[in-house]
Write a structure and sequence with these properties.
By secondary structure, the chain is mainly α. The chain is 85% helix and 0% strand. It has one domain. Keywords: Membrane, Transmembrane, Transmembrane helix.
């Protein structure tokens, strides 16, 4: 009986997780490829900027 409840709970959890990720992917495809490319470029630029700020602490331009 406990395993049956665990199995149903796990099934519900897995279904909600998979369905939410599918809706995210659907939203990305609805937005379009170019929107996705722009978002990826912005995120990569932000990561590079943050890394450069933390690695250039010693001797920057005053």
């Amino acid at each position: 009986m406990i395993m049956n409840r665990f199995g149903i709970g796990f099934l519900v959890f897995a279904a909600t997780t998979l369905l939410s990720s599918c809706s995210v992917i659907e939203g990305i495809f609805k937005a379009g490829v170019w929107s996705g490319i722009i978002v990826v470029v912005i995120v990569v630029a932000l990561i590079v900027w943050l890394i450069s700020r933390f690695t250039n602490r010693g001797g920057g331009v005053n």
